[in-house]
Amino acid sequence: KITIGVLKNTASLPALMADAAGDFTHQNISVETKTFDSNEQLDAAIKDGTVNAAVTNLVSYAGLVSKKANADWKVAVALPGYSGLVANKKYKSIKRLKGKTIAIDKKDASKQYLLDVLKKNKMKYSSIKVKEVASMQDRVDALKAGSIDAAVLEDPLMSTAKANGGKILNRQKMTTNNGSILIMNKAFAKKNTSSMQILVDTMNQEIKMLDKSGGYGMTGTALNKMNFDQKGAKVLTDLDVSFKKIHKVKKSDFNSAFKYAKNHKLYKGKISYKAHTIKIKNIK
C-alpha cells in the first residue's frame, strides 16, 4: 500500500484527483492520500513512517534529509505548483509593504520565494517584518483577521485569500519549475518499482486532464478533501491553467534550492543531486 502525504496546494491535486476518482484503483495499485496542514506536520509523518511518499518542495526536502534518520528519502519527480504574495487590499504594490508584517514558513520554499520577490522590487528583507506561521490556512485566517498585512500562499488557498478581500501582488508562472516535488522512501520504492511507476503515470494523466479542461473546474471533489471554501473555489475556477507534465527535477533547480537551504542553515552536508534522487521509468 502506497500512502502519500499531501499538502493543501496545487502540487497535491494530481494525487488527490486520482484518489477521489478511483483512478489508482483502476490501475490496480493501492493508494491512500493523507492531507496535512503544513510541511512541519508532513515531516513528522515522514519521520514516524506514517507515509512512504510525499508531496513537498525542494527546500523542505533539504531540511528533511539534513538529518541522517531521513537519508533514505529521495526526490523522484518535479510537480506543477506555484506560490504568490497576497496582501490586504489596501496595499496596492509590493513596495507598500515596507515595515509591514508578512507571514511565511521559514523552513520551506516560501521564504526563498519572498526573498526573490523583494530582490526584484529592490527591497531588503530587513525592511519588512516576518511572522512564522507554518500552516497556510492559518495565514489565510490571519490575513482576513488583519493580524498580518500579507502572506506567501499557494493555490487553492491563495484564491481563498483573494475571495476574502486580499489582493494578489505577485504570482509565480504556472509553467515554470517552482520547486514542488514528489519524494519517496527509497527502500519502499525499490521493493515496489512498478507500483511507483504506475503512481506517477496516473498522476500525470490527471495533469493532462487539468490542462485539457483549461482550469480547476474538474477538481471539485479533490478540493473538498482540502476543506476548501466555496468563495475561494469561484476565484480558483476562473483561472486559466497550463501545467507542465511530471518530469525529472532539473539539477540546476536542485542545486539552487540546496544552496539556499545551506546558506540559511536548513541543510548540512554535501550537495549531491545524484545521491538524493531516484529514477522513475519513462520520466524524462
Structure write-up:
With 284 residues, the chain is an alpha/beta fold. The chain has twelve helices and ten strands. The strands form two sheets. It has a five-stranded mixed beta sheet with strand order 2-1-3-10-4, with helices on both faces. Strands 7-6-8-5-9 form a five-stranded mixed beta sheet, with helices on both faces. Helix 5 (109-120) links the parallel strand 6 (101-104) and strand 7. Helix 1 (13-21) packs across helix 9 (193-213), helix 6 runs parallel beside helix 7 (157-163) and helix 7 crosses helix 11. It is globular and about 55 Å long. The two termini are 26 Å apart.
Largest sheet: 5 strands, mixed
Q: Termini, distance in Å?
A: 26 Å
What share of residues is helical? 25-40%
> What Rg do the Cα atoms give?
18 Å
Strand percentage lies at: 15-25%
**How many distinct beta strands?**
10
The poorly predicted ranges are: none
Shape: globular
What string gives the helices and strands in order?
Answer: EHHEHEHEEEHEHEHEEHHHHH
Structural class: alpha/beta
Strand arrangement, major sheet? 2-1-3-10-4
What's the number of helices? 12
Mean pLDDT: 94
Q: What are the SSEs and their pairings?
A:
Blueprint: E1 2-7, H1 13-21, H2 23-26, E2 31-36, H3 39-47, E3 53-57, H4 58-65, E4 73-78, E5 83-88, E6 101-104, H5 109-120, E7 129-132, H6 136-145, E8 150-154, H7 157-163, E9 166-171, E10 180-185, H8 186-191, H9 193-213, H10 220-224, H11 230-237, H12 251-263
Parallel strand pairs: 1-2, 1-3, 6-7, 6-8
Antiparallel strand pairs: 3-10, 4-10, 5-8, 5-9
Helix pairs in contact: 1-9, 4-12, 6-7, 7-11
